[in-house]
Amino acid sequence: MAPLLLAIAGIIWLLLGTYHLLLTLRDIGNPRAFTPTDASVRMAMQGAQLRLNPRINLWDSWLGFNLSHSMGVMMFGGALVFISWAHMAAFSQSAGLRALAVLVPAAYLAVALRFWFWGPALGLSLSLVCIIGALFL
User: Fold this and answer.
1) Which one, out of 33, 67, 68, 88, has a CA that is 20 to 30 A from the CA of 21?
2) Comparing C-alpha atoms, which of 135, 56, 50 is closest to residue 101?
3) Torsions phi, psi of 89, nearest 5?
4) Rg (CA), the chain
5) Phi, psi of 49 (to 5 degrees)
6) Cα 30 to chain center, whole Å?
7) What residues contact residue 23 under an 8 Å CB cut-off, 6+ apart?
């Protein structure tokens, strides 16, 4: 049962990350998800360069952040699924892996509760419950 719970947690992360990635890719050509509701704000973002690198505008940086965030979420989910299928014994014996499996979702949940909306918070909560359940089985 523990491997199944860990796999479910990973699948939740994969689904959230994939959905976020698809919305971001769509926003590259047709901004609808991660764009401000006031189009003039997006236009201002497109016209504002970063001090770090003046060749990059704030809108492109925003899209790049969302893409990399999506990929990181997907990688974490994939790692949980892989561990559940191929390395559950190592997971069970590694305090470090178990701690990361709880701390990463807990940190994302804290961010979701403060900065995002109920959808990510719900998914992260469910994944955290599955991970904690897997630890106790």
Assistant:
1) 88
2) 135
3) -65, -45
4) 18
5) -85, 160
6) 22
7) 32, 33, 34
Q: How do the domains of the chain map onto residue ranges? A: 2-136
Residue linked to tokens 């992260």: 124
User: What is the reported pLDDT for 137?
Assistant: 84
pTM over 0.90: yes
Which band of pLDDT confidence, cut at 50, 70 and 90, is reported for residue 36?
A: very high
H-assigned helices in the chain = 2-29, 39-47, 58-86, 88-93, 95-115, 118-136
Task: Choose among 34, 43, 42, 32: nearest CA to 65.
Answer: 34
Contact assessment for residue 88 and residue 2, using Cβ atoms and an 8 Å cutoff: yes
Locate tokens 């994944």: which residue? 127
CA distances from 26 to 23, 30, 34, 41 (A): 5, 6, 10, 19
